[in-house]
Amino acid sequence: MAQKPSIPKGTRDFGPQEMARRNYIFNTIREVYSLYGFEQIETPAMENLSTLMGKYGEEGDKLLFKILNSGDFLRGISTDDLAAGATGHLAAQLCEKGLRYDLTVPFARYVVQHREELALPFRRYQIQPVWRADRPQKGRYREFYQCDADVVGSDSLLCEVELMQIIDTVFRKFGIRVCIKINNRKILSGIAEMIGEADKIVDITVAIDKLDKIGLDAVNEELRQDGISEEAIQKLQPIINLSGTNQEKIATMREVLAGSEIGQKGLDEVEYVLKTIKNEQLTIKNDIELDLTLARGLNYYTGCIFEVKALDVEIGSITGGGRYDNLTGIFGMPGLSGVGISFGADRIYDVLNQLDLYPEAVTTATQVLFINFGEKETAYSLPIIASLRAQGIRCEIYPDAAKMKKQMQYANQKAIPFVAMTGETEMAAGKVMLKNMTTGEQQLLAPNEIINRLL
Known about the structure:
Elements: H1 16-35, E1 39-40, E2 46-48, H2 49-52, H3 57-62, E3 66-67, H4 79-84, H5 87-94, E4 97-99, H6 104-113, E5 122-131, E6 143-152, H7 158-174, E7 178-184, H8 185-194, H9 201-208, H10 211-214, H11 216-225, H12 230-240, H13 246-256, H14 261-277, E8 287-290, E9 304-310, E10 319-323, E11 338-344, H15 345-355, E12 368-370, H16 375-390, E13 395-397, H17 404-413, E14 418-421, H18 424-429, E15 432-436, E16 442-445, H19 447-454
Parallel strand pairs: 1-5, 7-8, 12-13, 12-14
Antiparallel strand pairs: 2-4, 3-4, 5-6, 6-11, 7-9, 9-10, 10-11, 14-15, 15-16
Helix pairs in contact: 1-7, 1-15, 7-14, 8-14, 9-11, 13-14
């Protein structure tokens, strides 16, 4: 017997019901983005590796899926190179392209490449899959969708405020209670200065960003392994453990970072966003928390950073983002500021499943199945089916004149709520027998009465 086919670890198939639910997620996010004036773009699944490498830090570079060059990809590779097994050197020669790791770096490339066509500030959204060569685990996949919104070409903190409004609106529409966490990379830079490790800012942020996943002791051990002094680690502890209201945290950090100009600027930015979003007329419903351990390990963030955690489900971040002033400079356009967020559609899908928050209509496909009794009955049914579809009623006719039992089993298997039958009696009366598959009730109805009944 042939071996059953399978798919790569960290990827998933989605059947019709699952796709209906995923489209509900995408459409909800798409509608909110449009309300805020964002326009949709798409970029290729693969980018030149020169576009991707060096944009996500050393850890991110390791997670890039690289694509072998077309044709004879070993051409030009010496036997000495192969024997030496220099993986990095070989990869650079064998692979010119890679699958995109996120949507932000391709977006920055897009902005630079199409600069003359864009009106700044440019507000774009993008809903596409991304790929990461990560170890698969619950809530973490190798192929997953991101739903990004970015504003590029403005330094205004109103952009951050609107992105937080978007986050709040989307999750209220889904019915998911969340905590929106905010921090600022300038505050983190100030902390690194204060503990005497300014040149280790990347190592510090990568480590403390793992606090929720591996715990404080493991974070401290990672800091030691990165060469952070014991004295600096001890100075960091009160900051990591800081509690209180957002305003109390800001007041405390004003004192802690009194000697850091960049740290004070970060506090100014966070305080402005929090004060503006607090306006009651903005109707923000979800919790907003200043979290000084939030680091967002990616190197390109330079200002406010965001992360969203679901309150009623144990799962990782379901939305994240931040400001990345210097990203387009990597592609030859310095000084162009950007800020964005990304909804993790796959994790949101899992949360909605666990909390059973999908609207009932989302999971229903066909509403009416017309039984196929033969050619004459089919010819009678087709115009009725067309009129139902014209009114937005989802219906289908069984393609073969099979036994009634088989057609009814098909309706049950697909959870179709109504079955329509058009035999000799119904055709003579110019009507249709409509059966409710849940209650078993049957009604003889004219085509327009079926429309009224189902709508």
